[in-house]
Amino acid sequence: MQFGRLVGRGVGQLGSMLDLEVMVVNFAMTRVVAALFLKQTLEVAAKERERVANDAKTKKDKMAKRLRDVFKLADDTGDGCVELAEFQQMLDEPEVRETLESMELNHHEVRALVELLSGGERPVPILDFLHAALTMHEQAKTIHLMQASMDIAKVEREVLSIGAKQNALLKRLGMAAEIAAL
């Protein structure tokens, strides 16, 4: 009878160990499947990010080409720079306005951008125009920041000019004082 109890107790313990082993194996398999699913999900997400980045780059490249074509319409000399008056005249043409609107650019904003880039007196290089127009398209607030930057640069040029005039005047006054001392 005791042998039966021992065997029964051993079988019960063996059954418990088998149950524990089955639970551990099931848990491990669940973790492996979850890890594989997570890996596949991350790979798909990475490919999607890459696709979105490529689409954005393609769109930006197409826009840059169209902007370059618009710029070349105003570049009468072919030197890669456009005078403010030439660009403003070109912006009055309906075809150019339609092209800009198709790129989601307001012709008034583009006009203001060219005025900023030219500083009112300098020709605008094509690379400056492309960079600024693409940036403006990406962020509407950029034009305000650019205007502040251009205003600061203009004030800086004026201060330097005043300083140079002041130095010249001081030199003349110094010479006049030396002559008067003689």
TrEMBL record:
GO molecular function term, any single one: calcium ion binding
Gene3D superfamilies named in the record: EF-hand
InterPro entries: EF-hand-dom_pair, EF_hand_dom
Superkingdom to which the source organism belongs: Eukaryota
Protein name: EF-hand domain-containing protein
Residue intervals of the EF-hand domain: 62-97
